[in-house]
Amino acid sequence: MEIFNSIANPFCSFFILGLLLLFANAVSLANATTHNHDFVVQATPVKRLCKTHSTITVNGQYPGPTLEVNDGDTLVVNVVNKARYNVTIHWHGIRQMRTAWADGPEFITQCPIRPGGSYTYRFTIQGQEGTLWWHAHSSWLRATVYGALIIHPKEGSSYPFAKPTRETPLLLGEWWDANPIDVIREALRTGATPNVSDAYTINGQPGDFYNCSSNDTVIVPVDSGETNLLRIINSALNQQLFFTIANHKLTVVGADASTLNPSPPQSSCWDLVRPQMF
Ligand SMILES: [Cu+2]
């Protein structure tokens, strides 16, 4: 009997500890959500700088859809390739914990999705919050196949700074008045640097300095005195970009899906080393 007790007691404590761990795990997973999305990669007529191109997009949108999740959530994205190029999607800045095959760079973590094929990415966001982005990781498809990936704090927790009045994603990009795939192919063929882009874009729009663009400038409405959270993504391919707002100071509260604490730096201009996200 005594022998039985000395074995049974430690076993019993391990059993209870195991039950407690299981329970704690279930509680932490209770609020986590699984987000299902379909990404159809397809040629879409897009008119910029007075000319319509057959542009590769996701779901016909340029830039592509914005994904919004909470820390702890799972993303399931079924990518269907209806374009004539190979494609993969990279989830830029996501720490792929035990899901390295979902990272996306072609020929590094996966074979490309062939025209007519599909692939489902599945991963969980763990311990990250802020602004990231997703983009194609095959050739130069990422010139037009990209979008914002916004990670809100875990359900029930808040930002470590005052709640902003508004949140606005700003995706800075480049537009070629040509097929971007042709631009990189030509550069590889000749050994020269790729042709520079024909316009810089904000949320896919070149703005009113460019031809045929004056009606499509991105306008973010703000009221005097309010605090705005700008989610700035440098989705340009080749250029280093600088971001500033005339007569305003910017406070950086986070970078690369981490918040900066406790005293965020202030400046009037930020240098965005590609492809950083603030
Ligand atoms: Cu990337």
Summary?
It contains two helices and 17 strands.
Topology of helices and strands:
Blueprint (H helix, E strand, L loop, with lengths): L1 H29 L3 E15 L2 E8 L8 E4 L3 E8 L7 E4 L25 E7 L5 E7 L9 E7 L13 E10 L4 H11 L8 E4 L25 E7 L6 E4 L5 E2 L2 E2 L2 E2 L6 E2 L1 E4 L6
Parallel strand pairs: 1-4, 3-8, 9-11
Antiparallel strand pairs: 1-2, 4-6, 5-7, 7-8, 9-10, 12-17, 13-16, 14-15
The structure holds copper (II) ion (CU).
Description:
It is a single chain. This protein has three domains: 1-28; 34-152, Immunoglobulin-like (Sandwich); 166-272, Immunoglobulin-like, CATH 2.60.40.420. 28% of the residues are buried. By secondary structure, the protein is α+β, with helices and mostly antiparallel strands. It has helices at residues 2-30, 180-190; strands spanning 34-48, 51-58, 67-70, 74-81, 89-92, 118-124, 130-136, 146-152, 166-175, 199-202, 228-234, 241-244, 250-251, 254-255, 258-259, 266-267, 269-272. A hairpin with a 2-residue loop joins strand 14 (254-255) and strand 15 (258-259). The protein has a four-stranded mixed β-sheet, with no helix packed on it. Strands 3-8-7-5 form a four-stranded mixed β-sheet, with no helix packed on it. The protein has a three-stranded mixed β-sheet with strand order 10-9-11, with no helix packed on it. The model is unreliable at 1-8 (pLDDT under 50). The protein contains two helices and 17 strands. Bound molecules: copper (II) ion. Copper (II) ion binds at residues 90, 92, 135, 275.
